[in-house]
Amino acid sequence: MASGFTPERIAGLVEGAASVAGQVELAGILRSTVEFAKEITGARFAALGVVGEHGGLVDFITVGMDDEMVRSIGTPPKGVGMLGLITTTGKTIRTSDIATHPDSTTYPAGHPAMGSFLGVPIRVGEQIFGNLYLTDKPNGFTEEDEILIEFLAVTAGSAVSTLRLQDRLRRAALLEDRERIARDLHDSIIQDLFAVGLNLQAAAAQVITDPEGMRKKIDASIDHLDESIAALRRYIFDLRPPVWARPNLREALADLVGQLSAPYQATVSLEVSCSADLVPRHIADELVATVKEALSNALRHSRGDSIEVRVGCGATQAVMTVADNGVGFDPSGPGKGLGLSNMAKRVASVGGSFRVDTTSGKGTVVRATFPLAAD
What we know:
The chain has three domains: 7-167, GAF domain (Beta-Lactamase), CATH 3.30.450; 173-244, Single alpha-helices involved in coiled-coils or other helix-helix interfaces (Up-down Bundle); 247-371, Heat Shock Protein 90. Helix content is 49%, strand content 19%. The chain has nine helices and ten strands. It has helices spanning 7-21, 26-41, 67-73, 81-89, 143-204, 211-239, 249-261, 281-302, 340-348; strands at residues 45-51, 57-63, 93-95, 117-124, 127-135, 267-273, 306-313, 317-324, 353-359, 363-371. The strands form two sheets. Strands 2-1-5-4-3 form a five-stranded antiparallel β-sheet, with helices on both faces. A hairpin with a 3-residue loop joins strand 7 (306-313) and strand 8 (317-324). Helix 2 packs antiparallel against helix 5 (143-204), helix 7 runs parallel beside helix 8 (281-302) and helix 8 runs antiparallel to helix 9 (340-348). The two termini are 45 Å apart.
C-alpha cells in the first residue's frame, strides 16, 4: 500500500479498525490486528507480543513467516533488547535499520535478516498489554505508517478492554444465575428429598402393623425420588458454563501462565499454534491441567531462569512441551515425587502419551501428546 494519507488508505484503516473492534474473542483481536498492521504498512513481517507480569513476552503471534522459518528460528523472543525497550518506555520506536539501533540484540540462528523496524505499544488502560512489531518495509517506514499503526494499537487496546469488560459482566450474570439455581435447589430439590425421607420413616413404622401400606409408601417414595433426581440433573446442566463463558485454549493457557509465573523471577514464554475449535473440550481440560502441573513443578523446583511452554496441533494430535533450563533431576531418585505419575495418569486417561527428558545440570523437558478425537 502506498505511503501517505490517501483516501484509499484512510478508508482501508477505518475498515481494518472496524474488523479488529468487531472480534468477539481475544485470539481474533490479536490475529486480526497483526495481519492488518502488515497489510496497511506493506511490511514483510509483522508480529504481536503479549506482555506478562514480569515484562517478558508470554505470547507471540507472527504473520509473514512460513512454518519452516518459524521452526528454524526456534524459541520465540522473550521481549529483551529493542523489543523490551518499547515495553519499558511505552514509546514507539521507528528505525531504518535494526542493526544500527543501540538496543538491538543478535538474531538467533535461523532468523531472517531484517532491516527497517516499527514498534508500537498496545495499552489497555494504563497498562502495556503488548507490542506491535513490523519489519522490512521496502524503503523504510514513514511517519504516516507510525501514525496509522499507533491508531491501530489504540483500537486494539480498546477492543481488548471492551472484551474484558464484557467478560466481567457475563461472569457477574453467571454468578447471579448460579445464586438463583442454588435457591431453587434449596426450595425445591432439597425439600423434595426431605419429604421422601419423612415418607420412608413413616413406612418403616408400618413394617409390622401394615406391610401393604408400607410397600405403597416405599413405591411412592421411589417415584418421588426419581422425579427429584431428574430435576436435579436439569439444574446441574444449567450450572455448566455457556459457550461464551468458556475460554479457548490459547486464552486459558495465557491466563494460567500469567497467574503461575507472577510470584517467580523466571521468564516464562508461551507459544500456542492450535486453532480455537480444534481441540475437543475434554482434551483441552486435561491438556491445561497437565501444563499447570508441569509448569508449577518447573517454577518451584527447577531453579532455572527460563521456561518455555509450547502447544502445537497436527492432524491427529496436540503436542505439549514444558522445558526449563534448570538443574534437572534423577527421575529414579527423590525428584520422582514431583507429580510425574499424576501427569502420566492424566494423559493416559485420554489416550495420550507422556515422557520426561531430564539431565542433572541441564534442565528438564516434559512432553505429552493428546489425541484430537471428537467429544
